[in-house]
Amino acid sequence: MSQDTISLKLIKRDVVGKRLRKLRNEGEVPAVIHDHGKDSIIVQATYGPLQKVLAAAGKHHIVHLELDGGKTYNALIKDVAYEPRKHLITHVVFNAVKANEKVDAEVPVRIQYEDEHESTPAEQKGLIVLQNTEAVQIEALPKDLPDVLYVPATKLVEVGDQVTVADLAIPNGVTVKDEDATVLATVFEPSSLAAANDAAGGDAEDESEVEAEHGSDTDQASQAEETRPGGKGQDEPKQSNVDANK
Question: Is residue 211, in this structure, part of any structural domain at all?
Answer without folding.
Answer: no
